[in-house]
Amino acid sequence: MSEAGKRTVGQAGTLESNDVMITVSPGEEGSGISIELTSIVKEQYGDAIQKTVQDVVGEEKCRDIYITVVDRGALDCTIRARLLTALLRAGVVQKKEVI
Question: Does residue 92 or residue 71 have the better pLDDT?
């Protein structure tokens, strides 16, 4: 986990149709990345959702966090945006300049 700030719980998203609620909690040192996925389309897209989450945490060099994903049919870009926002709110990543 980055030392971007105080480690806390971060959340982003809603439980509305076509959205996703993502909660990020700090884990114990050395615990790794843990992802809990609940989705109305898990059977069809669960692997793709897991890969998207893993890709984002890998790109952000996250470690030792617990991620809860409650998906209601969100697109990949929505999952990425919600996860980045939750990571930012949890103090795991720093805000980046957008050009």
Answer: 71
One-letter amino acid identity for 39? S
Note if the pTM is more than 0.90.
Answer: no
Residues 7 and 74: their CA atoms lie apart, in Å, by 27
3 state DSSP class of 36: strand
CA–CA distances in Å: residue 55 to residues 6, 15, 48, 74: 23, 23, 10, 16
Does pLDDT of 5 surpass 80? no
> Is pLDDT of 87 > 70?
yes
* Fold adopted by 10-89: Ribosomal Protein S5; domain 2 (3.30.230)
The Cα 27–Cα 49 span in angstroms is: 21
| Cβ pair 11, 65 in contact under 8 A | no
